[in-house]
Specification:
single chain, alpha+beta, five-stranded mixed beta sheet, 12 helices, 5 strands
Length: 264
């Protein structure tokens, strides 16, 4: 079956293709990733994801897709009197601020939601690019809480795996066009006075990230094929492991609240 805008996120396409979000799911928790693919677990919808999707639609969507999105999420976006919730109004205001930035709009001016497929280490991948300018650049739009990384030891780009996203997008586009294009992020924050940034992820970071994908992705594909059993992460912030955990023994009180996973 041909991959299209309508079936891109379907269960069938998620089984047929690896994606950046699926790869990152496997990195977090193999059991959770497989449960999502098999349809036995659905990640709870978050307000942050809703606002991010709205922001994407307002800047890269078509008039029709924007109308459909707003209609489908009307109750979460607008009060009964028709006024937007405060965080929604903030998103609209920030969109207007981005539109006043000529350089950011230049990198958002490419073909939007461009779909391509390819292979990495023999594993089929699908990508959907926010802004693709043939022969020029790739750009992804991010609407996030802050530019600060939650981890003192990793940059914001590495912590959220944006280098992995850029590496996969660049490689798949290269396979389709024979051109290795630079990857940019257009970023806006959800703060009252939003920070706006345009940044390029350098090639050496993309190369390192692609190498990381190549090392791990064949195991993840073997999991999808049912050749090996997935491991549970048993981390406290994994909602899937928390919801499905069976207590088999008492733990030392000194371990309470610490990571559950014991390395071999």
């Amino acid at each position: 079956m041909k991959i299209t805008q309508k079936n891109y996120y379907s269960s069938e396409m998620n089984k047929q293709y690896m994606s950046v979000s699926q790869f990152k799911d496997f990195c977090k928790c193999e059991a959770m990733a497989m449960a999502k693919i098999n349809g036995t677990y659905q990640q709870p919808k978050s307000r942050a994801l809703l606002l991010g999707s709205l922001f994407d639609e307002l800047l890269t969507g078509t008039e029709k897709s924007q109308s459909v999105f707003i209609e489908e999420n009307k109750q979460e976006l607008f009060k009964k009197n028709g006024e937007p919730y405060a965080d929604v109004a903030q998103a609209y205001e920030t969109v207007e601020k981005v539109k006043q930035q000529p350089l950011m709009m230049k990198y958002l001016s490419g073909q939007t939601q461009k779909i391509m497929t390819g292979e990495i280490a023999g594993v089929p991948f699908k990508i959907k690019i926010d802004s693709y300018k043939a022969g020029k650049f790739l750009c992804d739009l991010k609407y996030m809480a802050s530019l600060r990384s939650p981890n003192l030891f990793d940059s914001m780009v590495k912590y959220w795996g944006y280098d992995i996203q850029g590496a996969v997008y660049q490689e798949i586009v290269y396979q389709n066009t024979n051109k290795r294009l630079p990857f940019f992020l257009c970023i806006a924050t959800k703060e009252t006075i939003p920070h706006l940034e345009l940044c390029e992820i350098k090639q050496y970071d993309l190369d390192e990230a692609l190498s990381n994908v190549e090392k791990k992705v064949q195991r993840f594909q073997a999991l999808k094929n049912g050749e090996i059993e997935p491991e549970r992460c048993e981390e406290y912030d994994c909602l899937y492991c928390t919801a499905t955990r069976i207590i088999t023994e008492a733990i030392d009180s000194n371990m309470l609240g610490m990571t559950r996973k014991i390395e071999d």
